[in-house]
Every structure is written in structure tokens, then in C-alpha cells.
Design goal:
The chain is an alpha+beta fold. The chain has a four-stranded mixed beta sheet. It starts with 13 loop residues before the first strand and ends in a 12-residue tail after the last strand. InterPro entries: dGTPase-like, HD/PDEase_dom, HD_assoc_2, HD_domain.
Length: about 425
């Protein structure tokens, strides 16, 4: 694999001014070098919330800032735990910071929006792990412990739980950060309070029982953020059109047509087999960001292919279709009628590029998988839902399901007949 040249720097101490968490100080040279690495710098060009800025103009923050925020929360949490008498070695502290710093390094353009479109069937966590292993080779094995923590192979389980669990630092940062940049105040969680309530018993993460109301607020905030931001009907619609535009581009490339695009994006639009990630795949991926997609869409809105042109223009000019969030799905018969109307209007044979129905599902709290543990005054540890009189928590342990439908504006009135 092609290697990036390392530059010699004298001062490897840095301070980032984060609008959410304040000043973030970097004093570890290895962490400094990882932040400066092109793999990580790419996250400056990856949107944290996909196309949510089509709804909330302030939501232009990036994965780069989120990753730094997670690392800062890890720093604050480990300091709090050490003050409570939890032994944490310097190697463990460094490794846990690195693990959470790099946990999202495998995200592609627009974050989750293109999860399975750019590289078919490959989750971003697998790419993150692969890139972490490459960095480990480049930095002479200094990331080995961080990788073990990331993979939950380290015996002290609480380190991994701080990175990935039902009350991890990743969620505490993105809820507060996304709330800040979107202006959706309902998502603003009190991360300081929750972190202060964290403790460790038998190397497992627990929360002091008196922090239960902060946990309830955190879980409800997550619900609000999903329905108001992540599952907002306009955001979901824009992401659907984006996915369909790339699918159409892939099909045109497959048919032998040439499309204007960056060499990096063309690499992924013309290759079909990613079952075994090659070094060249990862090298190309490390250069792929939001700008590749946007620049392509800007050119494709003038393309001769009608389907690609309509999809691209709709995204670039924000002329999106009519969309609805409904408690029940439309029947297949209704969808078929909508497809026929769409094909008539656009004079095409592929109406499915413009009609979309999908299930939106959120489980606020999973009481059966890695439940949140509470530490009682007696020293006993119990599952969150077993706390006395916690009917509210039990209610959060049920799936909330809604359905999203989008249709071209030209038949927006037509859909009202079936509601």
C-alpha cells in the first residue's frame, strides 16, 4: 500500500477550540501524529449528520470534531474514575483515547447516508478497524492495545463500554454536539453529570443510582434527536435521492457510459467486488470525502441520462420530492399505482428511482443486550430496568416504528387519496 510521508514537526502540542466542549489539549505525541495523519484529516471533509443541513442549516459540523470531542470526554471520564480510586495505567489511558479517537475513521462520505452504497456490504466499523491496523503497522505496533480495546478483547471491559455500549461516550458527544449545531435543544444531554455518575465495579461500567434521572433524560433525548434530526423526513428523502443517484451512476458506468467525476469516486463506481478489502481499496477510500460526491452531482445535473439528471438536480438545488412520516406503510398495490403515475410524468420505465418507502425503527433502550448497570448505596449492582418504580424505563424498551414515504412533487396530491 502507498505510504504517506511523515513530516518532521518540532511542536507536537496542540489546543483545539471546540464550540461544544471548550479547549481540547493534545499533549501526547502519538495522538498528535494520529490526528495529523491524512486518514484522520479526511474526517474534516465528512459531514457528521449527512444531509441534515438541508433541514438545519447550522448542521455543517464534521466527523473530525466529533472524534476529538469523544477523545476529550474519554479524558474527562478517566480522570473522574481515577479520582474515585479506579486504577488506570498510562498505557490504558492512551490506548482508550486512541481507540475512541479513531472509532469513526472508516466513515465514508455523508457518514451513515452512504453506508452500503460506496462499498457494498462493508460496515464502516470494519473499515475503521482495517485502517487502525494499517496505522498500527505504520506506528510500529503502538496501537495494539487500542485495537484490543476497540474489539472488546481487553479483559477490563469498561474501557470498551466507554467506546461502545448503551451509554457510551460516542453517544454522549454526538447527542450534545448534534443538538448544538442543529439547534434542537431537546437533544442536549448533560454529559458532565452522567460522566460524574460513572464508576467501575469488577472492571464493568456502572452508574451511581442517584444518576437515574439523568439516564432517563439521556434516553429520551436520543428519541427526540432521532425523530427530529436523524429521521427527519426531508433528511431521509435527500439521502434516498443521493443513494439512488449513485446507484444510477454505477449502472451507467456498468453499461460503458462515461460520467464526469473525480478519479477516486470513479474507482468506487466502477468496482463491484469489495468482499475482500485490498490495499488499493483502502488507499482510494482514504481520499474519498463529501466533496467528491457534491462535485459529481453538480456535473450530473446536466447529464443526458434523464434519471441521473433529475436525481442530481433535485439534491443540488434542494428541489426534493414530497415526503411523509406515517404510522403504517402503504400497501404494495398503492406503491404500484404511484410507480405508474411517476413513470407517466417523467416518461421513464424506472419509477422506483423516485418512489421510496422504508421503515424507521428505534429501540431507545435494549434491556436484554448489554444493559446499563446501576450501583446502589448498598454496593449492589442491578440492571437499570430493575430499579423500583421505573415504569418509564420499561416503556423505553419497546421498538418505536414509523414509515417514511417520498414521491415526486408532481404526484404529491395523488398520494393523499390513499392516506
Amino acid at each position: 500500500m502507498k505510504e504517506y510521508k511523515k513530516e518532521t514537526r518540532i511542536n507536537k502540542k496542540k489546543i483545539f477550540n471546540d464550540p461544544v466542549l471548550g479547549f481540547i489539549s493534545i499533549s501526547d505525541e502519538l495522538i498528535f501524529d494520529l490526528i495529523e495523519h491524512p486518514y484522520f484529516q479526511r474526517l474534516r471533509r465528512i459531514s457528521q449528520t449527512g444531509l441534515s443541513y438541508y433541514v438545519y442549516p447550522g448542521a455543517t459540523h464534521t466527523r473530525f470534531l466529533h472524534a476529538l470531542g469523544c477523545m476529550q470526554l474519554m479524558h474527562i471520564t478517566l480522570r473522574s474514575l481515577k479520582e474515585k480510586g479506579v486504577y488506570i495505567s498510562k498505557d490504558e489511558e492512551r490506548a482508550s483515547k486512541i481507540a475512541i479517537l479513531l472509532h469513526d475513521i472508516g466513515h465514508g462520505p455523508f457518514s451513515h447516508a452512504l453506508e452500503s452504497t460506496i462499498i457494498n456490504g462493508i460496515h464502516h466499523e470494519k473499515i475503521s478497524l482495517t485502517l487502525m491496523k494499517l496505522l498500527n503497522e505504520e506506528f510500529n505496533g503502538k496501537l495494539s492495545l487500542a485495537i484490543d480495546i476497540f474489539l472488546d478483547k481487553y479483559p477490563r471491559n469498561f474501557f470498551h463500554q466507554l467506546i461502545s455500549s448503551q451509554i457510551d461516550l460516542d453517544r454522549l458527544d454526538y447527542l450534545r454536539r448534534d443538538s448544538f449545531f442543529t439547534g434542537v435543544s431537546e437533544g442536549n444531554v448533560n454529559s458532565e453529570r452522567i460522566i460524574t455518575m460513572m464508576n467501575v465495579i469488577d472492571d464493568e461500567l456502572v452508574i451511581d443510582a442517584k444518576g437515574i434521572y439523568s439516564i432517563e433524560k439521556y434516553l429520551t433525548s436520543r428519541i427526540f434527536m432521532y425523530w427530529q434530526v436523524y429521521f427527519h423526513k426531508t433528511s431521509v428523502t435527500a439521502e434516498f435521492y443521493l443513494i439512488e443517484a449513485l446507484k444510477r451512476a454505477k449502472k451507467l458506468f456498468y453499461k460503458g457510459q462515461e460520467l464526469p467525476t473525480t478519479p477516486t469516486l470513479q474507482y468506487f463506481l466502477t468496482k463491484t467486488d469489495f468482499s475482500d478489502l485490498k490495499n488499493e481499496d483502502l488507499y482510494q477510500f482514504s481520499h474519498l470525502d463529501d466533496s467528491d460526491i457534491i462535485s459529481a452531482l453538480q456535473l450530473w445535473q446536466y447529464h443526458d441520462d434523464k434519471i441521473l439528471r433529475i436525481l442530481s438536480k433535485s439534491i443540488i438545488q434542494r428541489k426534493l420530492p414530497v415526503s411523509l412520516i406515517m404510522p403504517k406503510p402503504l400497501t404494495n398495490n398503492v406503491i404500484e399505482k404511484l410507480l405508474i403515475e411517476t413513470e407517466k410524468i417523467y416518461n421513464i420505465k424506472k419509477g422506483n428511482y423516485f418512489i421510496h418507502q422504508n421503515k424507521l425503527n428505534i429501540l431507545p433502550y435494549n434491556s436484554t443486550k448489554d444493559p446499563i448497570k446501576l450501583l446502589l448505596k448498598s454496593g449492589k449492582v442491578i440492571d437499570l430496568e430493575k430499579m423500583n418504580n421505573q415504569v418509564f424505563i420499561k416503556g423505553l424498551s419497546k421498538d418505536i416504528i414509523k414509515y417514511h414515504i417520498c414521491v415526486p412533487r408532481e404526484i404529491g396530491g395523488f398520494i393523499q387519496r390513499f392516506l
